[in-house]
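=== Per-residue structure ===
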Amino acid sequence: MNREEQLKWCQLCQRRKMDMSQGLLCSLTGAKADFEGECPNFEADMPVVKERQEEAKEEGRKSTIGGWLAFFLYFVIGLGCLASIFKGVLELKSGDMSIYGMPMKLVYVMYIASAVIAAISTIAAFHNRRTNAVSWARTYMVMIIIDGLVFVIGSILIDEPMGRGDVRSIIRSFIMPIVWLSYLSLSERVQNVIPPETRTWGRLEKIIFGVYTIAALSILYMSVSFANNPQDNLHLVDSDAFVREYVRDMNAEMDGGNTCYIEGKKIYMNYVMTETERDTLSFLEKLLIKSSFEESPEYMEEVRKFNSLGYSLCTRYINQDGDVMCEIEFTEAELKGEDADTEEYTDIEEDADTEEDTDVELLIE
């Protein structure tokens, strides 16, 4: 039995005596303890014993998962993990992510999955008192900061205004992780559960953090590339989903009975003519309308974009009864700069004025 084990008995005994040169002695023998197992002369000093018992209980409470540590693990990380899963599923199904193709969706799944793995690993590591528990927690908090940075940088590069809800979300993405990172460094309970001298940052958490960071940068790059230059990045989108989203947005903006719809591989824009406008359009007027579209860079960019996706834009003018008065569609030949085939424009007016038709023929010649 060593000296340290003997002193545990002496410190709780009424017969202890302090000697400045030798240390703690026994008042009966005047010497240092030399017993094995249990001291035959031990007599408990009950006030000291009770004090030590309370200290042991307090140390035990501090080494358990409770208080703010429990709130951090179960509420901040646990509920945050569930929210990430729920948000990810909704985003893939009905959000802006739905217009993107499989590459973007796979990267987004990696992005969400790595965050979920980090959250679950943090909770499990603390429960099992693993040496990398604090490292997992810090890794997860830094992931949240990266998520906020990606959103802010993306909004700036895309020049997309942020709403009040977005601003609040961004603030939480930075302030909340910083608060909890400080807690992990300063909390006495965390130090008792995972002593600082035993902590490690393992290979698995490094890999998960690397996957998350690469996925975040990939999402930022692809979304900004498509938003700023869709013509050269159409390979990133799901053609049909993109067209459906475009039609929904157009119908939300159009009014006065005007509609947008898909028919086969054509996107039709129906514009209703007012009662003050003519009920018919001549061939010449169709050419003038077509010319106005050609002079619009924005419209021609839309035409080329949808043509690259396998769709064509068609403009229809209809009267109050729903009859098509004029239909305009740009052909593949026109988009390539070749001569247009005028036969693609259908004159709905059956009883066209002969003199007007003659004027048009002379104009074409």
About this structure: The chain has three domains: 3-62, 67-236, 239-364.
